[in-house]
Give the backbone structure.
Amino acid sequence: MNIAILVTDRCQASSIHLTLDLLIAANYIAKDNFGSDISVFNIELVGIKKKAQAYNQTFIDGIKPINLTTRPDILIIPSVFEAIIDEENALNCMRHHTTVVATIKAWHNKGTLLASACTGSFLLANSGLMGGRELTCHWASSALATKLFPAESFQTNKLLIDHGDIISAGGSSAIAQLILYIMSREYSRELALITAKIMLIEVNFEGQSRFAIFRPTHDHNDPLVLALQEQLESKVNSPFDLTLFAKQQALSEKQVVRRFKKITGETPLSYLQKVRIENVKMALESGAKSLNKTIWDVGYEDTTSFRRLFKKNTGLTMQEYRSRFSTLYA
């Protein structure tokens, strides 16, 4: 099985190295455990240049020009730039990858399986191959992805999304889950599990929402939205009266909601819920208050309702979140 790994300037070097380590380990395991006489995976690094500089300033060489590469069975597209990047730099990076995108489309049309991780999914979105089908990427890139590709559907609460011909994975170390998933799907589950054990990786194909941090933007010039954001964030444990706020602004509730959502991507209610969840997460990470007291402190009286909301947003119960992320229980 021929696998090509796309390497670009500003890529995440650790993603490239981890992908190589997992595939090479799998080749050794296939020989030792399954009696394979040849390498299961034939691996090539491909890109525009023979040597690329990752965003951590290290260099990766041994890259074969993508236009001289025979079409692989699978193309892995790791991060092509940092997950936290501004719009101008993201667009500038993508402008340098027009020939890469053309090759990706041509290979896909002839049957190559495409598998992206983190900001590699931006290239898939830019290729036009998705047609509105769901993609995932690093949760920190979610807002930018939605802004740059409004016609595409980015679901960053999901760790892996498989459409058969295209697979996308979340950010950073999610590349490991992507490679193990491909091993399981394209070769054997046993090989993937043994490789994971040898490399001390816990297999998790569920989601990345537990790692997400709600960071609303205040970088805009709408005084009404800023005022509402301030009220929702500073009085998180107090009831919010949208009717009163709208009346004070001499606007209808619908006008306020429409204007707020255009800027933040959230309704006032969903915004307040996310602010409250973020406050509870911080309390669970650093405090020892009872779970119910933590809920009451953010203005919720119905603890059962909030617990359901918390799990829906993070994928974990409050106790599971505390056990996993608390500095007191580490």
Summary: The two ends are 42 Å apart (CA to CA). The first strand starts at residue 2 and ends at 6. The mean pLDDT is 90.
